[in-house]
Amino acid sequence: MHCYPHSRTGGAAGKSRIKHEIKLGNSKKNRALPNERSRVFILNERDINNIRKSLITYHYKVNGDTIKKTLERHIDLYFRDEIKTANLENRAPYVPSLKQFSYWNKKLFTKDFSINKKNTKKEIDLKMRALLGSVANNNCFAG
Questions:
Q1: Range of the domain at 84
Q2: What does the pLDDT look like over 6-35, one tens digit per residue?
């Protein structure tokens, strides 16, 4: 928790970003290979909920999968038809990228949740107690 009430959201307390149907900014150009780049996958609420389910199922458990492996399982589970049609049409599949997946991992789950779910109680007590913080780190005191 910060001492400044709106520092985390930059003055827009409790508001989320506006979602656009098209990707904002300049499009990237493929310099190395002559083939076309894949379209950017625009996530909607259903996709975000599916990402949350996949992360909890595969990533957030003791000895769970890495983010990359979890993304592969997520794509296999929710985008199997898209992969098949993309292979038949000889084009790049329209699926979320690793960068999008890791962004929503950080956005949906806190570091405390991650540490508590991916490690046993004994490991947390031995190695990671300082990462979870203390009362002095989480609260603002006068002076």
A1: 45-110
A2: 555 455 666 766 666 666 666 666 676 666
